[in-house]
Design goal:
The complex is a heterodimer of chains A (183) and B (206). Chain A contains 8 helices and 6 strands. Chain A has 183 residues and is α/β, with parallel strands linked by helices. In chain A, strands 2-1-3-4-6-5 form a 6-stranded parallel beta sheet, sandwiched between helices. The two termini of chain A are 17 Å apart. In chain B, the strands form 2 sheets. Chain B has a 6-stranded parallel beta sheet, sandwiched between helices. A two-stranded antiparallel ribbon of chain B has the order 5-6. In chain B, helix 1 (3-11) crosses helix 7 (138-150). Classes of the chains: A alpha/beta (183), B alpha/beta (206). Chains A and B meet through strand 2, helix 4 and helix 6 of A and helix 3, helix 5 and helix 8 of B.
């Protein structure tokens, strides 16, 4: 049965966007700071309209690490969501907060440039993503199955606080928009 | 107006119930020696581009508490993208105070853009801040800061100060903590203030 048929029959499964929002709420995340992009595009309207989450839209990924760090100091669970190129933009504040202060933070990014990427500039996003995360000593986990979304978010929040480290979750496979859906 | 004049005036207007995020550079030791009660109420950050963003996150998390960002012109110019976000979110409990000496003091005073044509208060106002003000003397600073701290609206105060600090703090008056110690001290201070547990330490065996 195709997804559209399943949806019209009334028993469609939650998609990545619903699972992401539900996962954040179950992990008691109440602040999401983000510069929206296209591969998690269904999630942003849900986050903006959710009554339990304060969604903060920024104009540069530079501002995300500080907002998340400040929320942590205030006792609120916060995450940043951005394109994987955003980690390049946010390098300096991430480095300052991670190396200078060991402030925990969780970032979620879709994998632009994964196998089958048809957008030419997306390949650079992928080629630089892991080297930049490694340079910043940010441990990352790939989340590719829908069933992995909720436990990954819950564990990432726990991991970041316990280790006082930054954690990245890379959403790929089923957990982002399907750019090769026509194949 | 020297920076220390503004810092000392501010210290008289705030209480140990307020929280602060403070920039690096010469401002650090001025505030370290004047912060109310000598408490761990200040998050001293090393990153020039993280100060007001961190203060904003703190203000979001604790909407019932005054949060004051003690920032600099170099830092604000580096993180100008934040102004639009603040101008749209309008965090009512956040006041940003920019100590604007128009110079990169720690490298000998090379001029910043605010020494020339760039006006930070006008930038903040154009980005949506309803109360963005520039002041040039200590009395006006004190009056304006008192108003902005108590109006329950997002405020942005630029204190134009002398390019060179009035004095240097002796060794025994300089801040003694590094960034990691400051994090824990500030974190535990907020926990005590709010009566909450933020950082959970788990040990095997209970």
């Amino acid at each position: 049965m195709t997804p559209s048929v399943a949806a019209s029959a009334g028993f469609a499964s939650p998609d990545y966007a619903e699972l992401l929002v539900d996962g954040l709420k179950e992990a008691e995340v109440s602040i999401v700071a983000s510069l929206p992009e296209s591969l998690l595009k269904k999630a942003y309207p849900l986050l903006q309209s959710d009554k339990d989450i304060r969604y903060i839209g920024v104009s540069s990924e530079l501002d995300l690490p500080g907002i998340v760090a400040g929320a942590y100091f205030g006792g609120k669970r916060a995450v940043m969501i951005m394109e994987n190129s955003g980690v390049r933009q946010a390098c300096e504040p991430l480095a300052r907060l991670i190396f200078g202060h060991r402030i925990p933070m969780v970032m979620i990014m879709p994998h632009r440039g994964d196998l089958g990427e048809d957008v030419w500039w997306g390949h650079g996003h992928s080629e630089t993503m892991v080297p930049v995360l490694d340079a910043l000593k940010i441990r990352y986990w790939r989340v590719s199955r829908l069933g992995e979304i909720k436990p990954a978010i819950r564990k990432a929040m726990l991991h970041a606080d316990a280790g006082q480290v930054a954690v990245a979750l890379i959403f790929e496979g089923e957990c982002r928009e399907q750019v090769d859906a026509q194949d | 107006m020297h920076r220390i004049d503004a810092v000392q005036a501010l210290a008289k207007l705030v209480t140990d119930q307020d929280l602060f995020v403070c920039a690096h550079g010469g401002l650090r030791n001025d505030w370290w020696n004047n912060r109310p009660g000598g408490a761990d109420n200040t998050c001293f950050l090393t990153g020039m581009d993280t100060v007001s963003a961190t203060a904003f996150g703190l203000a979001l998390a604790l909407p019932h508490r005054r949060v004051i960002s003690l920032d600099t012109d170099g830092s604000q110019l580096m993180s100008a993208s934040l102004l639009g976000t603040l101008g749209n979110e309008l965090p009512p409990n956040l006041t940003i105070i920019v100590f604007d000496n128009g110079a990169y003091e720690s490298i000998g005073g090379l001029k910043t853009h605010t020494h020339g044509r760039t006006d930070l208060a006008r930038m903040a106002e154009a980005a949506g801040c309803p109360h963005a003000v520039t002041v040039r003397d200590a009395d006006t600073f004190a009056r304006t800061a008192e108003r902005l701290l108590n109006d329950n609206e997002y405020g942005y105060l630029v204190a134009k100060i002398a390019a060179k600090a009035a004095h240097q703090w002796p060794k025994d008056k300089q801040k003694t903590t590094d960034g990691v110690e400051e994090k824990y001290r500030f974190l535990r201070h907020v926990e005590r203030l709010e009566g909450v547990r933020i950082h959970h330490v788990v040990e095997i065996g209970g």
